[in-house]
Write a structure and sequence with these properties.
- It is a single chain.
- The chain is an alpha+beta fold.
- It has two domains: 54 residues; 145 residues, Mog1/PsbP, alpha/beta/alpha sandwich (Protein Transport Mog1p, Chain A, 3-Layer(aba) Sandwich).
- The strands form two sheets. A six-stranded antiparallel β-sheet has the order 4-5-6-9-8-7, sandwiched between helices. Strands 1-2-3-10 form a four-stranded antiparallel β-sheet, covered by helices on one side.
Length: 203
């Protein structure tokens, strides 16, 4: 009888040890699962950040031309010449002009166009403004403000007959650039060019 009691006691104690080991194993198994969840959440956050940088393939842009309000669909275009993209309205085309310079021109009349030049982050704006004014003075001594809606920028403009030449310096810290617009009095696409330029993103 005593032997039988001891046998039952040993079996019970062994079962208790096995149960304890199983519990410890289950608890340790939970830890990698928590790490996996953290990694998964971090991955999802990273993916959301990347999605936020994705630009739509098209969007509508509003502008005024000779006092008339207009709206056109613009398509996302990436320069093969400089590290930037922007939305280009359907009646225009983006093309490389020369290294460091792109143009957006009116398809039906390519004498109407805007030149885009990305500038260095440490650009001297005083020097650039002086250079712009010297170039414009070769067209006309009368330089005026173009009276366009330019945020964080400066504009200069001259006329020669029906031709209008407008230089815009957009002083964005991340993507400073210079625009030169060539338009005509009866084809005032300056606001259209500026609205497209506002969508420019470096990279």
């Amino acid at each position: 009888m005593t032997c039988w009691t001891r046998y039952i006691g040993c079996v019970t104690f062994a079962a208790f040890l096995l149960t304890g080991c199983g519990t410890a194993t289950d608890e340790n198994a939970d830890e990698p699962q928590e790490d996996s969840i953290k990694e998964e959440n971090e991955g999802n956050t990273s993916q959301r950040g990347n999605r936020n940088k994705i630009r739509l393939m098209e969007q509508n842009l509003q502008y005024t031309m000779n006092g008339e309000a207009k709206e056109k669909t613009a398509f996302l275009k990436k320069s093969d010449n400089q590290p930037f993209s922007l939305y280009v309205m359907q009646q225009f085309r983006l093309s490389a002009e020369e290294p460091g310079k792109d143009i957006v021109f009116l398809i039906e009349d390519d004498s109407i166009y805007m030149r885009i030049e990305l500038l260095k982050a440490d650009v001297s704006w005083d020097e650039v403004e002086e250079n712009v004014q010297d170039q414009l003075k070769s067209i006309s001594e009368t330089i005026r403000d173009p009276s366009l809606d330019i945020e964080s920028g400066t504009g200069f403009e001259v006329e020669s007959g029906d031709d209008v030449t407008t230089s815009i310096l957009l002083k964005d810290e991340k993507a400073p650039f210079r625009l030169t617009m060539f338009t005509k009095k009866d084809k005032d696409y300056r606001d259209a060019f500026l609205e497209m330029a506002k969508t420019l993103m470096k990279g």
